[in-house]
Amino acid sequence: MKKRFALILFGLLIVAMSAPVYAQFEWKVSGLIDSNAVWYNNFYSTNRIYGNYADTQGNTAPNTGSLDKDGNYFNTRGRFKFDAAMGKEVTGTMFFEMDSARWGETAGGRNQLGKWQGDQVAVEVKNLFIDFAIPYIGIPVPMTARVGLQPLVSRAEMAVNTDGTGVTLGFKLDPVTVSPYWAKASHYKDYASDDVDVYGTNIIARVGRMTLGGYGVFYNMRTYPLTSVSSSPTVDPSFKGKMYWFGGYADGKLGPLNMMADFVYDWGKVESFGAAAAKDVDYRGWAARLNLALPIEMFEFGTRLMYATGSDQKDTDGTGLPGRTTPWGTTTKEVKSYVIPPGSEENSSYGANGSGIFYSNPITGRTPDFTGSNASSMSRGAIGGTWQAQLYASMKVAPWYKITVLGQYIGDTTDNGNTVGTARKANGNPRDDSDIGWEMGLFNEIQIYKNLSWGTVLSYMIAGDALDWQGTGGNVSMSNPWFIGSIIKYTW
Questions:
Q1: Structural domain boundaries enclosing 419
Q2: Which terminus, N or C, of the chain has the lesser number of Cβ atoms within 10 Å?
Q3: What is the pTM of this model?
Q4: Are the CB atoms for 216 and 179 separated by under 8 Å?
């Protein structure tokens, strides 16, 4: 009996001593499920590099054959994020994403979970990384490290917004935080210097009511475009590139105003490997943005201003590669358009500044727009070759209902051609127009329950001459684009 009682006490002692250890472990789960409904008219095809005059899909008409015809679809996204935290020192993160680009998809597989009968292999690993505090090693500042497949962001809506494998460090020097990172964008042959490496640093400081930030990013692309080399050792790249992005921003309160201000500059070169007709191409571009908002009780009034340089079509074709012929018959030598890095999803982040058509919108997302992006090459993203002036007003009608109205003008900054449109003069040269168009938008945001929301978007665009395209019988002016969208979203 005494032995049994002693064993019981011993077991309780072990549990008591172990409890504090196990109490440090914590699972955190978050995610979302949403469903979009979209109805639209006259949106161009996507995947442009520097403008529709060199669409990588070879398309020159809105959605190739859908001129003045309305389209519609539903889509769905699910995200599940798991954080396994062991105290404050170590956390492991697994982040999964599932998409249906269209309900009723026929192909199945990645981004195709909407296929009839379901059961698709559509679960994507978006992130998989470890965060940990670095033990004291003689440097008298708190240090952290993140290792694995992680978000790589340097001002998402203006420059770098992607996921990649790499290492990010953190140094806390109150009130400044410095976060250098390295990532491997492409790895080809183990025994050859043909990889793509990314080096960057983010610096953030809190000063009064303002957050000041700066970043520098270097893409050492020993192979360019990123997919031009296969895993076969017999294939060699034709080009290489070295590109830099430098930016600064300020967010916070400026008197009674909420402010967001940005400036970013891209600089670098894409080089050929000695082909006689292929010359090097220089890159020089910049973009600036200023958002101001004045909150007054249940109202908010604001403006958004943006300018991004465009290319000169006498100096570059749509790919920006050495040796290529421009629309004017000259050889590509310089890209003055503001460009974003390969694979950056800046175009989706900038949708927060849109009304629903040209730059997408902040409510639905994953819907038609006129922005460009490319996974393997630099591209103009959402803003390259355009400028924007917007006014908006919001009203919190009730704790659960917000309505926003806005109007904006969008201009073209490309020289000797248009950023999106493909229209040409009678002599065959590209037409140079400045008017992309006027947009009007109406947003409704309704909080049904604490974690369940419903949003709607109604947008209309008065299309300008810079959206005209070249058809088989001459230039074509399409009808004004419009967009109606609805999204229901559950978050936890």
A1: 45-79+150-491
A2: N
A3: 0.90
A4: no
